[in-house]
Specification:
Blueprint lengths: L9 E3 L4 E3 L4 E8 L4 E7 L2 E6 L4 E7 L1 E6 L6 E4 L3 E4 L4 E6 L4 E7 L2
Antiparallel strand pairs: 1-3, 2-3, 3-4, 4-11, 5-10, 6-9, 6-11, 7-8, 7-10
Amino acid sequence: MSVPTEFASVTVHTKANVYFDGGVVSHTVLFADGSKKTLGLIRPGTYHFGTGAPERMEVVAGNCVVTLDGQSAAQSFGGGQHFDVPGKSGFTIVVAAGLCEYICSFLA
């Protein structure tokens, strides 16, 4: 899978979405068709996110370990890989070192 390197003709919210005291920071990107993504960075740590709508998390760079809610098995992901999270669910993400850069696509 190839992770996008740029998005053309979009609107970007300049106000950052800041979570976990700055451990996770993202910016919202709006597309002409009404779809939305966030682009962000995750610093080392362990974080849990809940989802409203289904999401696809694409790892642009770095590494993380993810456990989806309701599952016991953790999976590792690196640059160029992705994982999907069901709506009304969640996931725990662990970044051991460095930064994990991501694109989150809202699928519904």
